[in-house]
Every structure is written in structure tokens, then in C-alpha cells.
Amino acid sequence: MKTKKQYIVIGSISLVILISIVFSYLSLNKENKQLETLEPKMEVNNLPISNPQVESIIKIPTESTPVKKESIVDNKKYILATLNVFDKSYSIKIEEGSSLYDAMKNIKDNTFSFNGVEHSGLGYFVNEINGVTGGSGKYWIYYVNDQEASVGVSNYILKDGDIISWKQE
């Protein structure tokens, strides 16, 4: 049979072990909270990223995530614009800082084509779109967001969300 002294020693040791476990848990929990505040939380499609050294992440839109007009791929920023010719509409995705001329050259739709002339100091002027040329005093004029453009297509730098409309006037 154990003596009262033995019960006190065993109880004291048990209490010390229990206190050590509680403090270890609290200290570990505190470290984790400090790390959470120091490290940015990164995720793709609401899943955590395991590598905190990643500097930029593309958040892939899901059905519940709204799609932004501009996106970043390979550290390049892209913009979206729309080009309208008669009743046909073309979506344009191009690197930020590109001209309308650059965008028109990069339209990958087989139904779109254009020709024109480079005028020194003035830029590129379009005289044919989709096989339709100017004639009888009509010229191809483009509008940016319903405002007549004041520069040639090679000098106009597209902005995100621009709507370009080509008209014969």
C-alpha cells in the first residue's frame, strides 16, 4: 500500500506533466498564430498554397468568382477590348500598352482582315476591312467608346474595356 507521501509525489509529478503539456500546446498555438500573421495567405480556387515564396498567384475564376476584365499572366498584364465592324464583333485580349493596330494584327478570327497605308509621322490608316474598301467618298473611320478617334490606329493605345467601332463615312 502506498503512503500519503507517495501519493503527493505522484500527484505532483502528474501535475507538472499536465502543466507542461498545456504550456506546450499554448506556446505551439501562439507560434502558429504569429506565423499566420507574418506569412500572407495564398490560395488558388480557395485551396491553400503550400509554398509561401510564390510572389504572384493567378486566382482562377470559378462560377462564384466574378471575372475581371484584366488579367496577369507571366508577369504581363493583359487587357480586353471589343472591335465591331458592321454586325460582326471581335474580342481582343492583348498585352497592356499595345496599339489598336497591334491588336488588329493579332485577331485570330479567319473572318477578319484589313489593309491600309503607313503615313510618315501620322501612323497607319486603314482603307479596307473584311474585303470592303472605301469608295464614293467614304472612308473607314474608327470610334473609341462612341467617340471619333483623333489618331491613326498605330498611335492609339488600347485601354481595358475599350469598344472600337469601325464605320464607313
Account of the 3D structure:
The structure is a single chain. This protein has 169 residues and is of the alpha+beta class. It is built from two helices and eleven strands, in the order αβββββαββββββ. Strands 3, 4, 5, 9, 10 and 11 form a six-stranded mixed beta sheet that branches. Strand 6 and strand 7 form a beta hairpin. The radius of gyration is 33 Å and the shape is rod-shaped.
Give me the secondary-structure topology.
Blueprint: H1 4-38, E1 43-44, E2 47-48, E3 71-73, E4 76-85, E5 88-95, H2 100-105, E6 114-119, E7 123-129, E8 132-133, E9 140-144, E10 147-148, E11 163-168
Parallel strand pairs: 4-11
Antiparallel strand pairs: 1-2, 3-4, 4-5, 6-7, 7-8, 9-10, 9-11
Summarize the structure.
The protein is α+β, with helices and mostly antiparallel strands and 169 residues long. 24% of the residues lie in helices and 31% in strands.
| Alpha carbon gap, first and last residue | 111 Å
Q: Could you tell me the number of beta strands?
A: 11
Radius of gyration, Cα only, in angstroms? 33 Å
If you average the pLDDT, what whole number results? 78
**Share of helix, binned:** 10-25%
Strand content: 25-35%
Descriptive keywords:
169 residues, rod-shaped, three-stranded antiparallel beta sheet, alpha+beta, 24% helix, 11 strands, six-stranded mixed beta sheet, single chain
